[in-house]
Input
Amino acid sequence: MKRKLVKWAIIFSIVAFVFNLTALLMVFGYAPAESQMGEAQKIFYYHVPCAFSSYLMLFVSFVFSLIFLIKKTEKYDIWAWAGAEVGLVFVICVLVSGTVWGKSAWGKWWVWEPRLTTFLIIFLIYFSYLLIRIFGKIDSKTPTIAAVLSIIGFLDVPLVNRAISWWGSVVHPKKVSLEFEMKLTLAVSLISVIILSLSLLLWRVIADERVKEKNG
Amino acid sequence: MTFLKVCFLIFVKDLKDEIRKKENILASLFFGLLSVVLFHFAVDSTEIDLSKDGSGLLWLIIIFAGTIFMQNLFKKEEENGTFYALILAPVDRAAVYLGKFAVSFLFLLILEFFLFALSFFFFNFPVLKSFFWLLLILCSINAGFSALGTLISSLTVNQKGSFILYPLLLYPLLFPLFIAAVSLTQRFIKAQLSFSEPWLRLVILFDIIFLTVSSLLFELITEE
Output
């Protein structure tokens, strides 16, 4: 099983490398600069895919947490933990790229914009998940607590988004019209970041299984 | 034993115990009083009118004071070592959860009435505008708050450092409920509430999702 996972992780990593290289070349060499924001708009090609990948990874964590609670088998907990951790990395990427975008688009490092604020709260939920994992490393009940947090946290996300949208003003453009070159570049970066997130997920699972094996 | 009877018996057992000991509810109420007085000094009352803009602060106090009560929901079972006896009892575990949920719901309601009355007394907070709407807001917010609070409380039973764990687990999940509570109270103050209020629908959706999910998860986490 582990050998198979390593094989897939290597394949995904190579494909992610090739796709990311292509995506970067397209972002800086093929996609046209946006008329108002100029080069800063190119953050968009990684900001949006990171947001998508973070949702995907948190969904992976949600599904495996649910399976873990039903079956009580450790291997599902490893996948749930890996999903949440990789998801959190991408949430941080969204927040960082969002603040850089905010500085160039609106002149401020932080704007209480609904979607960005939603990601800030997702960050808080999953950071608490991480803290619980760190605090309760040797406690047998920690996986159960973490699984519940992952399930409730994931179900909370749409409600957080709705609440924040109604609360604050909408600064994000509702509908973005993109040129063909921009759409193609976005599609390639989206695929590249998704593959990268999957390879990170696999490596994270392998690392955890190796630690467990070592500790017996 | 029927489902509702188990719920009722758990509810009565905890209620009697709390009335006898009074430590949880008194600690929560005193914390509430302390915070309301502190908030007077925390804001410039010549600039900010707490009777109009104090709903956010009031809900912060409710969440913190409510936490004091709810994190001790399973404390006596923990101290007496009877938590597993409660879980192993040949009854539906969801009924145990709902009994505990009902206790926290009731005590939150008492706490909120106390705090709203204090706010009326100290800051002239317009609580007497419409009792029906106030009760509706409090009950709808309490359902979601108690649903998650009770579940997290059951999770941290027999856990080392549960006092640190509890707020860490609960507060991030309460964001939508907190935002909705503040918005609904602001609308209540301005007498702008109606049944078509989207915030009310959001809160009810939150209540339904998390009450159902929490009672199902309670059964799963106590299976071990």
Notes: The radius of gyration of chain B is 18 Å. The mean pLDDT of chain B is 87. Residues 3-221 of chain B form one domain.
